[in-house]
Amino acid sequence: MPNTTHTTLPVLPLRNGVVFPHMVVTLRIETAEGKTALAAAERNDGRFLLVPRVDGKYANVGTIADIQESDGDGNVVVAGVGRARVGAGSTDDEGALWVDAEPYPEVDIIDEQLESLVSEFRAVVSEVMNHRGIGAVADRILGMENPSQLADLVVYSPDLDLEQKVRVLETLDIRARLGLVIDLMRNVLADFELRKKVRDEAAEKIDSSQREYILRQQLAAIKKELGEDADVTDDYRTKLEERDLPEHVAAAITKEIDRLEKMSEQSPEHSWIRTWLDTMFDIPWDKRSEDRLDLDEAWAVLDGDHTGLMDVKERIVEHLAVRKLRAERGLDDDRSSSAILLLVGPPGVGKTSLGESVAKALGREFHRVALGGVRDEAEIRGHRRTYVGARPGRIARAIIEAGTMNPVFLLDEMDKVGNDWRGDPSSALLEVLDPAQNHTFRDHYLETDLDLSGVLFIATANVLETIPGPLLDRTEVIRIDGYTDAEKVDIARDHLLPRQVRTAGLEPEEIEVSTDALASVVDRYTREAGVRNLERQLGKLTRKAATKVAGGAETPLSIGDGDLVDFLGKPKVWKDEVSDRTDVPGVATGLAVTGAGGDVLFIEATAMDGEAGLTLTGQLGDVMKESAQIALSYVKGHTEQLGIDPKALDRRFHVHVPAGAIPKDGPSAGVTMTTALVSLLTGRTVKSTVAMTGEVTLQGKVLPIGGVKQKVLAAHRAGLTEVILPRRNESDVDDIPEKVREEMTIHIADTLDDVIAIAFPS
């Protein structure tokens, strides 16, 4: 036992451990401070004070130690002698720190309390050793009798940190020290028991999927030995875990992965399943575009891309406004705000490009699905997986290509969908376009529900008549009937000409086309409802200009009205065509709507000797033939009223509608045919400035027709100044652009008497 008197000892600081009394340890001394302390100890009969230093602070208690061995290279074997309180200190000339050390004598008086603490300590530490798997050595380690040495055994425990071991060193009273150590080891034991409980509970909760994973790993090893690909299913399962897929989709994929895992690579179904899985993972089930719900920005995008078309723009902005309000009020539901817009109009009016503008305004992806000529139902619904070359339908493939579940789809040319023995695609489209059904659209190839409720469908068509009624009922029809000449000039200046200038490789500052020149291109080189042919003419003009610029012509190249013949050739449209065609009796000017928009029809009638009857030519449909029969019957029944000699009707009549290569049908030529016959039989010519449209009855009533705006625009393009419309179409006059209404006279007719009174000069 050390001397209990105060003694001065050099200090060796310990940064990474604690040395307790009765311990023999080897220290590696490498720092200058440590070497200085070692030298001082050797001058002090080989004794120094080992003091732990935690966070830069010395402990209050250190261990007096004797040097047993030193090899001169910094390796020192020391033996702990006893604890000592650390007092004041000072540094000698060599730089060593010397402190006043007060040794603390160990008291070996064993009483009942101490024996109880020792027993409890042995029990707790024994349990800890059992958890660590070293219970066999517990008896040998815990067999010592000295309570102080027994308590100091915690220095070997990896479960206590440096700070806790220093607390044990600083606790001088043996009873308090044993109590502290027991508390510390109880915490360690509680931690062990908690970990064991977690492990046991986890082991109990190993479900079938985890057991299957082990089996799959074994199966993978077997397949590897057989030379088969063992990583395919693992890759698919990894993909499945990484994606946030709908529950029914994940279940379908898991089922197919399980089938694939049990299937030989030589099986034909192996490649089918892999192709199906690849397709399922290609579908963006968990990806959606965020709508841009700024109405002002949407207006700016739509106005910037298209001139006019206010009805369409207003409908798109209404759609955005509804989505914005529902989103702000927590009512956002794709199905509740689905809109299937059907843009109907002649070619070249901007139906397709309008779909792109809508997608841009919404901030969504855009994809065009061409329906023209589709006759196979599988093109919409997909093929059964059992077929060779099976693949998803166009809708599912479009979703994959768009990359989101809420793109803008343009279903182009819906009026040209056909059907044959392979099915009716228009029937398949019913489910696609029905907001009440398309959230569970079933593609035959995918064999799982595909939610299309987030898709904004915009369909296009030239005419409505060829679209099946049930399919048409699913859509909201918006007509784009064409443009006035003034609108075409604006479109040419703002959109078409800049695009053609870029296409021709010119810079905008290298060419100047006057407004008068653009107006002349519209007026004398094109006659169409849209602007497609206008763009072709501008393309021709810019190519000619590019040729001149490339040849060294001075820029900017100015093109005025008088230069158009040099660039575009002779004019192709003549406004006096109507007067030339109607300057003889028996010819009347009618109006019709075709797939290319409104058009002017010159209906001709003549009579010849022979068997009484009616000959019709011009590739007319059944309805138009009936209109001609009605017209002749009306004339025969009203000869006196019309001032016609009844004997003049005992001849054969021939009614012809020119452009015989183009099929024509519809009831709206009835009044025109009647007027042509009246003109022939009375010898009076029809006014060359008048065009007419309307269905006629045997009693001479004029019935309403459709396509008023397109027909009036066609008359305006042809240079006509008067149009006769049925009374019930009077409300449709408001749809006609104001500028056209100002330049034309719209006559309203109730009966054929009204028509004849307007059509013939007074």
As for the CATH topology of the largest domain, it is: Rossmann fold
Mean pLDDT, all residues: 84
Output the number of helix runs: 28
Residue share in helices? 40-55%
- Residue fraction in strands: 15-25%
Give the overall shape.
elongated
Secondary-structure class: alpha/beta
Count structural domains. 6
Q: Tell me the strand order in the biggest sheet.
A: 1-3-5-6-7
The radius of gyration over CA amounts to: 49 Å
Unreliable spans:
none
Main sheet overview: 5 strands, mixed, barrel
**Distance N terminus to C terminus?**
147 Å
Q: So what's the CATH class of the largest domain?
A: Alpha Beta
Brief digest:
The protein has 762 residues and is of the alpha/beta class. It folds into six domains: 7-103, Archaeosine Trna-guanine Transglycosylase, Chain: A, domain 4 (Roll), CATH 2.30.130.40; 115-204, Methane Monooxygenase Hydroxylase, Chain G, domain 1 (Up-down Bundle), CATH 1.20.58; 208-282, no CATH class; 295-479, P-loop containing nucleotide triphosphate hydrolases (Rossmann fold, 3-Layer(aba) Sandwich); 485-524 and 531-568, Helicase, Ruva Protein, domain 3 (Orthogonal Bundle); 577-759, Ribosomal Protein S5, domain 2 (2-Layer Sandwich).
